[in-house]
Write a structure and sequence with these properties.
Blueprint lengths: L1 H6 L1 H7 L3 H9 L5 H8 L5 H14 L5 H10 L5 H9 L7 E5 L6 E5 L7
Antiparallel strand pairs: 1-2
Helix pairs in contact: 2-5, 3-6, 4-5
């Protein structure tokens, strides 16, 4: 879930008003008191506030942070399109890491394990 939100970061920042989501995450103990204070400082700029929130969640050690964020988004009926996009996001393409082979200059794909849950 964390990887999906990272790949959709700009879409989330540009389309989500974080006010109710922040309150839900506080209620669910994902966001603490100090985090709430920081997030309230930029309440007049929803995009900045959303960026701060996502940054905070990416830095969090809470394994449920992005699951709870997803749940909070499902409560916002006008964001159903975003939930659909998150649900259908293709992680298979993210399972390969592309790099350029220095000796040959070829494009090489290297398999890597993707953890789908936080």
């Amino acid at each position: 879930m964390k990887l999906k939100f990272k790949k959709l970061h700009t879409t989330v920042v540009n389309n989500v008003n974080p006010a109710s989501i922040i309150n839900f995450l506080f209620q669910e103990d994902v966001v603490g008191v100090n985090d709430m204070r920081v997030l309230q400082k930029c309440k007049d700029d929803p995009q900045q506030q959303c960026t701060e929130l996502l940054t905070l969640l990416h830095a969090s050690d809470n394994p449920q942070a992005f699951v709870k964020l997803y749940v909070s988004l499902t409560e916002e009926s006008h964001l159903q399109w975003l939930i659909d996009r998150i649900d259908s996001f293709d992680l298979i393409g993210l399972q390969q890491q592309r790099y350029i082979s220095k000796p040959t200059g070829e494009c090489v794909f290297k398999e890597r394990k993707i953890v789908l849950c936080d």
